[in-house]
Amino acid sequence: MAKKVAVLGAGSWGSVLASLLDENGSDVKLWSYNPQQVKELNEEHTNTKYIKNFTFADSLVATNDLKDAIDGVDYILFVVPTQVTRSVAKQVAEILADRNQKVNIIHASKGIEEKTYLRLSQVLAQEIDPQNRKSISVLSGPSQAEDVVTHDITLVTVASDNAQAAEEIQGLFMNNYFRVYTSDDVIGVEIGAALKNIIALGAGALYGLGYKDNAKAALMTRGLAEISRLGTSFGANPLTFIGLSGVGDIIVTATSTNSRNWRAGNELGKGHSLDEVVNNMGMVIEGIATTRAAYELSKKRGVDMPITSAIYHVLYDNADIKETINQLMTREGRSEIE
Ligand SMILES: NC(=O)C1=CN([C@@H]2O[C@H](COP(=O)(O)OP(=O)(O)OC[C@H]3O[C@@H](n4cnc5c(N)ncnc54)[C@H](OP(=O)(O)O)[C@@H]3O)[C@@H](O)[C@H]2O)C=CC1
Ligand SMILES: O=C(CO)COP(=O)(O)O
C-alpha cells in the first residue's frame, strides 16, 4: 500500500521532494503556510517563485491546513528553513498529541539553530513527544532542487537513530535518478550539511572578487577540515565528512550557480551589502544564520575554525573581505593534518 507522507514547506526543496515522492507512488500532501501558493500549486500545478519552468503532476496535492496535511500519515518530512523548524514542530507536536498519532519524522533542512546551537534532529526531538514519534531521520547530500527536478543523477544519505526507519526511507525516496544511502551518523550528516553553506558563501565571495580555481579548491578543502574538526568534537564519524553530506555537498554548493548560498556570497564579493543580498534573494540563505551559530559554537568548544570566523566577521562585523582574506593567508604556518 502507498505510504502517506506530509511534506512541510513548499519552497524549492520541499516542493521538489514532494514531487519526487509523488512520482515514486507515495500518497503525498504538501503543506505551505501561504494560501496563495497552495492555490497556485493546486490550480496551476506550478510553484513559480521557487521552481521555474516546471509543471507538477496533477496528483500532487497541496494544503494550507496542517491538521489535514498530517492526518493519518506514516511520515512527516520537515523542509522549512532551519530557524522556523522549531515553531512548525511545535504546531505538529500539538496535533499529534491530541490525536495520539505516532509517525516517523524526517527532515531535509540544513542548518544549526541560532542561540541553542542545536542540530535539527535535536530540535525535533525536543518538540515532538517520544510517544508521538517512531524515529527521527535526516535526508541530506549534494542535491540542488533545480537539478533534481530535471532528473539529474543525484545521490544522498539518510541518517537515522533507527536503522529500520533509515532503510524504509531509503526505499521511499530511491528511483533511477535519485539514489539514497543509509547511515547511522546523524551528527556527522547534520553538521556537514549545515556548515557546508558557510563554505559556499565563501566560495561565492571569492568568485565575486575575481579569485580563480586554486582559491576555490583551497577554501573547499580547508573548509571541510574545520567542519570535520567541529563534527568529530561532537562524536561524528570522520569518514562521514568524505561522504555525500561532507565533501559531496561542499562540491555542489560551493560550485553551483543555482546555490542560494553561493549566489549570496558572489553578490557580497561584488560589493553588495548583506541587506541587499538577503532582500534580493527571496529564498532562504541558510549559511548566514549558521555562520553565526557555528562561530559561537567553535568559541564555546575551543575548536579552531579560521574560515568560519573570517566569514562571520565579514557578515556580522562589516569586516573588509580583502583584508580578511589577507589575514587568513598570513596566519602562522602550520602542519596540514593536526
Ligand atoms: N533548495 C535546495 O536545492 C535545497 C535546500 N535544502 C534545504 O532545505 C531547506 C528549505 O530550503 P528551500 O526549500 O531551498 O527554501 P525556500 O526559501 O525555497 O523555501 C522555504 C519555504 O519555507 C516557507 N516558510 C518560511 N517561513 C515559514 C514559517 N514560519 N512556517 C512555515 N513555512 C515557512 C517559505 O514560505 P515563504 O517564502 O512564503 O515565506 C517557503 O515556502 C533549507 O534548510 C535548505 O538548506 C536542502 C537541499 C537542497
Ligand atoms: O543544499 C543544497 C544542495 O545540496 C542547496 O544549497 P543552497 O541552499 O545554497 O541552494
Automatic annotation (TrEMBL):
Its EC number is 1.1.1.94. It is an enzyme of class 1 (oxidoreductase). Keywords: Cytoplasm, Lipid biosynthesis, Lipid metabolism, NAD, NADP, Nucleotide-binding, Oxidoreductase, Phospholipid biosynthesis, Phospholipid metabolism. It is found in: Cytoplasm. It catalyses: sn-glycerol 3-phosphate + NADP(+) = dihydroxyacetone phosphate + NADPH + H(+); sn-glycerol 3-phosphate + NAD(+) = dihydroxyacetone phosphate + NADH + H(+). SUPFAM superfamilies: 6-phosphogluconate dehydrogenase C-terminal domain-like, NAD(P)-binding Rossmann-fold domains. The keyword Ligase does not apply. HAMAP family: NAD_Glyc3P_dehydrog. This is Glycerol-3-phosphate dehydrogenase [NAD(P)+]. The gene is gpsA.
